[in-house]
Amino acid sequence: MSNMIKVGMADMKICSSPDSLTTLGLGSCIGACLYDPVAKIAGMVHFMLPDSTRIMSNQNLAKFGDTGIKELIRLMEEAGAKKNRMVAKIAGGAKMFAVSSVNLPSLNVGSNNIESAKKALKDFGIKLIAEDVGLNYGRTIEFYAEDGRLIVKAVGKELKTI
Q1: Cα angle at 61 between 134 and 149, to 5 degrees?
Q2: What is the mean pLDDT of residues 69-84?
């Protein structure tokens, strides 16, 4: 019997096979999913903002790309995963509002979040093997610890497995 574990906004969870993780309503937020295929341990962080260093009170590590991915790696290693085996998949980072990003680049949170996730993964030496990011619609994702599948659902779009 497997469980589908819900990851909230600015939240992170890990699980091992046969369980899976899901998060709803990724707009400009990123769902960063890490997987160790040998240990069959999966982790997901649903982060809202790219950079914790710009915010004064940032106790919630899962709220930011830089601290969220770092903490997720730590939790997975604590559970028996090995960083050198981990691979990553990301989804989200949509541009949810029609604003001119030329005038207000700080409002383009989605693309800033995508960049943050990619930078953090690169800095920690984790290979990004799949992504479903950008565009202008929200996503719900399911990440399976059994085989590392990431299912992406979006209203009015085909189901995607990456």
Answers
A1: 50
A2: 98
- Tokens 């690169």 sit on residue: 122
Residues labelled catalytic = 29
Position 4 pLDDT exceeds 70: yes
- Amino acid making up residue 126: I
Please name the residue that has the structure tokens 């984790």: 126
Element (H, E) at 97: none
Q: Determine the average pLDDT of the residues in 62-83.
A: 97
Three-class SS of residue 57?
coil
> What does the block give as tokens for 103?
């005038």
131-146 residues labelled b (16+ CB within 10 A) or e (exposed)? bbbeeeebbbbbbbbe
- Please state, in angstroms and rounded to a whole number, the distance separating the CA atoms of residues 67 and 113: 12
Q: How far is CA 108 from the centre of its chain?
A: 18
Q: What are phi and psi of 130, to 5 degrees?
A: -160, 150
Query: What is the β-pairing status of strands 4-6 and 20-26?
Result: parallel
* 116-132 mean pLDDT: 98
Strands 139-144 and 127-133: unpaired
- Name residue, tokens 């040998």: 38
- Under 8 Å between Cβ of 68 and 47: yes
DSSP 136-150: T--EEEEEETTT--E
